[in-house]
Amino acid sequence: MTTPVSGPKPRPAVTPPPVWTPPIPDEFTTATGLRIVTHDLPSQQVISIRTVLPVALADEPRAHEGVTVMLARLLDEGAGDLDAEAFALALERQGAALGAGAQDGGVSVDVDVPVRHLPAALRLLADALARPLFPEDEVRRVLRNRIAEYEHETTLAPHRAARALIAGLWAADDRASRPTAGTPETIGALDREAIAARHEALQPRGATVVVAGRLAGLDLPALIDDTLGRWDPPGHPEPVLAAPVPRADGTRIILIDRPGAVQSEFAIGADAPGRADPGWAAYPVLAYLLGGSPGARIDALLREDKGYTYGIRAALRPRARGGSFVISGSVRAEVTAEALDLLMGVLERARDGFAEAELAGGVDFLTRATPGRWATADAVADETAALALEGLGWDFPAHTAAARRALTPADLDGALARVGAAGWTIVVVGDAARTRASLDALGIGPLEVLPG
Amino acid sequence: MPLDYPIHTATLPNGLRVVISPDHQVPTVTVNLWVGVGSRHEPPGRTGFAHLFEHLMFQGSRSVASGEHFAALLAQGGRLNATTWFDRTNYFETVPTGALDLALWLEADRHGYLLDAVTQANLDNQRDVVKEEKRQRYDNPPYGQVLPDVYAVLFPPGHPYHHATIGSMADLDAASLDDVHAFFRRWYGPNNTVLTLCGDVTFEDGYAAVERAFGDLPASATPDTRTPVPLPPLSEPHRFERRGPVPHDRLTLAFRLPVDQTPGFHAASLALDVLGGLASSRLVRRLVRGSQEALSVHATAWGLIDGASIGMLTLDVAPGVDPAALEEQVLAELVAFGERGPTEAELEACQAQNERAWLAALAAQDERADLLSQATLLHGNPGLVNTHLDDLMATTATQIKAAAAAYLQPQQRAVVAHLREATTGTDSEALA
């Protein structure tokens, strides 16, 4: 044993932190209708720009699903007067990094750049939005790479599970039930013309550009007027965003067969409210108490007691409208059914309620962790862009924090009652020969086996 | 011009090196400890042990119950974890300022008195958890074995970097409570540790708090005082092929580079960027955009201290393309680059990208704390955090060309090829 050189010292007391409120940004709107939202963060030398352009994926033609993500990926593959190679080099010589993608509520174009190169980066961003070239070669390459990416995702258990989960969770005719970035079939049907046509849905009206970092000494309105402010395409109808419709056909197991897999991957989901819901504040607390740490209910049992998993997480997945509650992680193959049984038991017992002290622990964590989530330019810009995408006000974080502090155990019960009440979609990616019979024997619900 | 992050240093009488960098932007402090032990110190038959041990540090100590370290800090809004790597093990948490004393007290209890609480049951449980981590990260996903294969091919048996941090199942099975005791006594102690505070704290208050918590721990560790033996580049190509259910053929070309924080490493790292690290890089232009024979190209340079660092170029081969033919094109670029070096535009793009990446890393309190601990433990100079960028920027095109010629030539490569099961035999002959 260690020879103590002194007896244990008493555990130090903690001074509770004062209530901390995220900063409220400044904003202005260009003549073209583009909303510019700014956070001046004097210590942050890298500026983070987040562009949010509302688009409904549900507007994609069924045969062309994924066109919006492909459009986003092609925005910087040549724009303005520069071909794809020249554009990439121009960005990189300014120290800028540009990333673009699309989610259910919009296209996002993100740029991070050292502050002294901000003007040049804004010029390039404006060209990417307003004057993309969509060169044939790059269109072909980006489409082919998406097909390769789809094949890659098929082999990755967490991705394969997520794909099966949305298919099982949302109604078959809902866009949310199919991959955001499309399938080989729909991507294979795209061409330059389809991409260019989809570009017409992007417009400054209704869009938001977040700029966070050390802004002192910059004339941002003038910089914007000279760059993004010149983007003024013909008007396009604003998209109508809607929460996805759940399939709601009770608890069932979808087993994706992976012969020889040494682990089984779980993705267990149900329809859940989005952040605009008046009862939202309870949900992050629920997710934290169930699956937010090694000491949370799921991992306390499956990891710390049983040693079946490296970790299983529970999380809310808010969308532009609506959302889902998802539990995900992997367990070793030979305990698949037992682990699932234990996990569903944790969810059932949660319906018996949470103690005051447990609730307080969750509230304290989420409340006290907030300042750390707003400490860097990219984090502040990300949080702000998410608010814009979901149509939430800048005071949303403060309101949510206040509602969270007022939560009672009954609020958690009420929130949980709205999740999984109509059943859970349970996806298991694993070796069917090894796990099918024992999963079926659990009697949780009908079991369907699909090829990997 | 160097950056100007404030850096204060002090050493406790027991050898604990303390680094404090005040930053009052948000009311939180990061506590970050680097212990001078990593997988490079594991003896044969005990691979994976440093990492397994790191897990045990969360299972209780003299005055802290199993799991309580996590629970007590999470209740304060802390964000915490630990990681193990070739050269070191780190432990870190970011907490509201008012919880700094608690965080330090918890760290001191486990870094001083872990063995009072370690049990066979905890060891067995965390061994199972670590095995699941290995299955999740290495054994189950496609390409999961690429890195362990690279280490095994690039470094000779017995070299500190020959095996991956995760270790082998057999060695994890062999780990005993005696191993835990011996490992703790040898490596853990203030005289083999750096503790950094970064955030909402002054030097005076921070130092006093560290002294209160850690001041009476004995200087119990026996730090590694070996002088690393420099490992020259490979003199002839090495190769390892694995076939399996991967979606595409993947080639990884690995190289031994000079040790971290040397002009040679900086130059080699920038050379890899020019070759494959940026969207405008040569291999991207030629093989991804141009001929479209590669789906993607990535470049990596990991700075290490024990005689060599690791450089890698990774290419995903487009369907229908012969991996051997693709590799030949990469080799031609390596030769050409070693002869001519980067253009002015390439150098400018690399430097600008490195500048942004470094500034962005330092922008986050927790990452800055980690970099301060790294600079102190591995390089004896926390000021590197402020001067590193200048060192990179001072690297010339001539130095980059020289590094490419010295360390990134075809005969110096170790190739790991993970190929689709369906690929026919002629390919393997071409690759052999």
Descriptive overview:
- Chain A is globular and about 65 Å long.
- The mean pLDDT of chain A is 96.
- Chain A is an alpha+beta fold and 452 residues long.
- In chain A, the strands form two sheets. Chain A has a six-stranded mixed sheet, sandwiched between helices. A six-stranded mixed sheet of chain A has the order 9-10-8-11-7-12, sandwiched between helices.
- The N and C termini of chain A lie far apart (51 Å).
- Chain A is 38% helix and 19% strand.
- In chain A, helix 10 (297-305) runs antiparallel to helix 11 (336-350).
- Chain A folds into two domains: 26-230, Cytochrome Bc1 Complex, Chain A, domain 1, CATH 3.30.830; 252-451, Metalloenzyme, LuxS/M16 peptidase-like (Cytochrome Bc1 Complex, Chain A, domain 1, 2-Layer Sandwich), CATH 3.30.830.
- Chain B is of the alpha+beta class and 432 residues long.
- Chain B has two domains: 8-214, Metalloenzyme, LuxS/M16 peptidase-like (Cytochrome Bc1 Complex, Chain A, domain 1, 2-Layer Sandwich); 238-431, Cytochrome Bc1 Complex, Chain A, domain 1.
- In chain B, a hairpin with a 5-residue loop joins strand 1 and strand 2 (17-22).
- In chain B, helix 3 (100-113) packs parallel to helix 8 (203-214).
- The model of chain B is unreliable at 423-432 (pLDDT under 50).
- Chains A and B meet through helix 2, strand 5, helix 4, helix 10 and strand 10 of A and helix 2, helix 3, helix 4, helix 10 and helix 12 of B.
